[in-house]
Write a sequence for this structure.
């Protein structure tokens, strides 16, 4: 079983984001970067499948700046075997161009499972996994919370507002991981040391000219100050009124 | 001189930080209240390799080094001082000492099991009437045809009641004074001559067991002797020079935890219409905490680095780091309590716990006064 997991380097979710790049990019100064948490679920799932089957190889594929190799090494420390870094110093924001570059690299790889996070937590587009699957003409199951593999097919669970779905899909196929799929492991110290010795191939990303770019980013509006509507039972009608008509919470 | 951490060291710090926040913090209040040593947390730390930093792969370690171990201790100590104790109880204390002084049989029997958490370790030096003056200990080991018989009492021993194996220091020849002390590797369970009792009356470190051990005609085999007869005092001083690094790193963790909590609180707490962080006297306190934390950390990292370079006997650096980190932790927790005001006095917030835990550092493994004695002797003899 060969598994490829695509991972993206994103700002730590606990980082306070600052806008840079003339208002069009996240300012990386002073920011800690991590594997996008949904991608981490995908890495963990790949490792669990390999451990369960007792065989297979896990390849990490990441498109991003030179520093993306740091988060690839983290995936290695968790248990991935090797990887390819598609170097992109331009910080491309066009998901289709990124998907095309990833798909071009994937065409040269043999795999049964292609895993993504359901979205990267930087720009939250949630597009690349599906776009890559389309470009490779692969079936794709999104937002999965359970994945079992046997006899050349995968049985997958996904949840939506409608309820739970159980999907069967023939391999090779692509999947995007949702929270709840698993709880990623902590890398062992020994595996952190071994990670630096695992093979990592670096190639320039074959990016077409982007057809999309962010022209302006803004911070979310400041939260309005709290309001005290009164005290005790007498305040209830006013509170209900505000919850209904202002906060639209009821 | 390079102050940058390697990518691997950064990854290890991240593991320590995540572990503390996800595995220790969620049950901390409950565990502190119940004085609960959570064995599964201990096992998870072992599985990740936390206790194998200074141990060769051959004995189950990962050889990531003293610096890595100090960084991990800081990350854990930032959340829980109690949970930094196992670094000393498993690794810097018993395992590393056996690695240096043990024979091959002892190394194979004990080190992998201490590193992987199958056995809980301890070391027993202090007695009711013997603290800083180690050579005044009363515990004796009388040699017989097939082993030794231990008699005596040890006090304030971390893991006394939970340990499977302990380094025990005892006199084999009282007439030789400190040169008559020997060190033994004692299997603590299933020995009718060994009784332990928990000490519940301590001020802090509630999730780290502490107790007393009574040896009453406790028979141990000849193979329990670590090193040569009479090596005990030397081994003890050597061991303390390693476990003190763990204490110092614990102090850095406490100082950092206090500092981080104090900054957050000072920015959130509003008085007189503005966050209290705007007041210069609060800024003075925060600045002092930061300076002492940074200084303590650099002293600890220097001492750890020297050990990684092969200078294990770096007494001056270790005692300097231990003294300063202990004082910095106590100062930081005191200042944090002031900044938190009444909330600092409440067990609803973590700073009173840091305050109680920090005080132990001025006593354990050589008091602050003893560290100053060591420092003064070293600098005067230069």
């Amino acid at each position: 079983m060969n598994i490829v997991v695509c991972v993206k380097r994103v700002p730590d979710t606990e980082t306070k984001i600052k806008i840079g790049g003339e208002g069009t990019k996240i300012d990386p100064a002073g920011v800690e970067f991590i594997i996008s948490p949904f991608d981490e679920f995908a890495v963990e799932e790949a490792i669990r499948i390999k451990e369960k089957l007792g065989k297979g190889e896990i390849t990490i594929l990441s498109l991003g700046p030179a520093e993306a190799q740091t988060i690839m090494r983290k995936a290695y420390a968790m248990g991935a075997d090797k990887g390819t870094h598609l170097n992109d110093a331009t910080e491309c924001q066009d998901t289709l161009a990124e998907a095309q570059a990833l798909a071009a690299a994937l065409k040269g790889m043999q795999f049964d499972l292609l895993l993504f996070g359901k979205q990267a937590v930087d720009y939250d587009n949630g597009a690349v996994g599906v776009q890559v699957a389309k470009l490779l003409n692969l079936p794709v199951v999104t937002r999965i919370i359970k994945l079992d593999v046997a006899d050349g097919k995968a049985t997958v669970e996904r949840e939506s507002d409608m309820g739970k779905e159980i999907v069967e899909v023939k391999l090779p196929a692509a999947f995007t991981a949702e929270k709840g799929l698993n709880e990623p492991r902590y890398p062992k110290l020994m595996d952190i040391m071994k990670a630096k010795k695992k093979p990592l191939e670096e190639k320039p990303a074959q990016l077409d000219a982007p057809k999309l770019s962010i022209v302006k980013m803004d911070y979310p509006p400041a939260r309005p100050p709290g309001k005290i509507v009164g005290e005790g039972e007498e305040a209830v009608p006013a509170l209900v009124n505000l919850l209904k008509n202002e906060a639209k919470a009821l | 001189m390079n102050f940058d951490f390697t990518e691997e060291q950064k990854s290890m710090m991240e593991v320590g930080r995540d572990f503390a926040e996800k595995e220790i913090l969620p049950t901390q209040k409950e565990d502190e209240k119940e004085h609960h040593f959570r064995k599964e947390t201990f096992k998870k730390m072992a599985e990740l390799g936390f206790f194998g930093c200074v141990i060769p792969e051959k004995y189950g370690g990962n050889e990531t080094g003293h610096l890595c171990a100090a960084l991990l201790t800081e990350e854990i100590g930032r959340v829980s001082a109690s949970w930094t104790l196992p670094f000393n109880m498993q690794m810097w204390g018993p395992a590393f000492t056996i690695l240096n002084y043990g024979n091959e049989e002892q190394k194979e029997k004990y080190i992998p099991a201490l590193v992987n958490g199958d056995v809980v370790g301890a070391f027993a030096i202090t007695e009711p009437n013997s603290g800083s003056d180690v050579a005044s200990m009363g515990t004796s080991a009388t040699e017989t045809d097939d082993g030794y018989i231990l008699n005596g009492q040890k006090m304030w021993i971390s893991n006394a009641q939970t340990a499977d194996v302990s380094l025990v220091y005892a006199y084999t020849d009282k007439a030789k004074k400190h040169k008559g002390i020997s060190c033994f590797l004692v299997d603590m369970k299933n020995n009718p001559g060994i009784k332990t009792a928990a000490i519940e009356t301590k001020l802090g470190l509630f999730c780290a067991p502490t107790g007393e051990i009574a040896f009453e005609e406790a028979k141990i085999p000849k193979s329990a002797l670590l090193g040569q007869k009479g090596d005990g005092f030397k081994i003890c001083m050597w061991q303390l020079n390693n476990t003190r690094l763990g204490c110092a790193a614990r102090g850095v963790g406490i100082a950092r935890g206090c500092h981080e909590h104090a900054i957050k609180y000072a920015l959130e707490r509003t008085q007189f219409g503005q966050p209290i962080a705007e007041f210069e006297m609060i800024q003075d306190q925060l600045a002092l905490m930061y300076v002492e934390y940074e200084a303590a950390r650099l002293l600890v990292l220097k001492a750890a680095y020297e050990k990684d370079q092969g200078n294990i006997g770096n007494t001056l650096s270790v005692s300097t780091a231990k003294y300063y980190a202990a004082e910095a932790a106590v100062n930081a927790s005191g200042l944090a309590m002031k900044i938190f005001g009444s909330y600092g006095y409440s067990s609803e917030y973590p700073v009173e716990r840091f305050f109680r835990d920090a005080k132990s550092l001025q006593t354990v493994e050589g008091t602050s006064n003893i560290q100053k004695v060591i420092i003064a002797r070293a600098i005067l003899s230069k």
